[in-house]
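Checklist before submission:
- one chain only
- standard amino acids only
- sequence pasted in full

Submission:
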Amino acid sequence: MMRVPRSAALVLAGVSFLPPSAAAQSEQLRDSWQRVPDLFAAAGVRAGANIADVGAGDGFLTVRLAPAVGPTGKVYAVDVDAKVADTLRQRLATAGITNVAVVVGTQDDPRLPVAALDGALILNAYHEMARGVAVLKHLYDALKPGGQLVLCEPTPRSPNQSRQAQMDDHVLDPALILDDLRAAGFQVLDRQDLFATNLGGNHFGFVVAKRP
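Returned file contents:
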């Protein structure tokens, strides 16, 4: 499941922890800074595209991806927590969204079809993946040649922290993400360390890579 820094809990908390009206308000606040259109553009989101939301959690991106790809496209919403996946299925059913497949992945495999994706996104979730390179290798296989992967993660406030210390703090240096992407065979296209800043003042980095 996608977890978030305690300092940003009121802004980023998943909908399962809030009443429906409060959850909607929280997501509206998040829309004000998360730069979702830019994330979608970098991942090649368009009508008819097949896109994966890896670490989907309560579905902040998923419910925005579904109308963006339209009825001829498909969204794969992946989470490792079966209960979270069930909650997301209920949210989608309530909203009448039918072009999303909710997938329960494992710690090292998102369980996506091979060479089926036009793009993929990991938002505020990669820092939770202890076996990140293995996940990225499976994503490489799931993407079509030329398909692009976007990662957007909170960045450390202090330099020179170990990777484990960063993960424990729910952040990750974009430089570490670049290393993992290259180890998985991706070609890195873009890196922005100050891509977005949430209402608590936490910065989010942004990395785009593609399967050659």
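Reviewer check: The longest strand covers residues 143-154.
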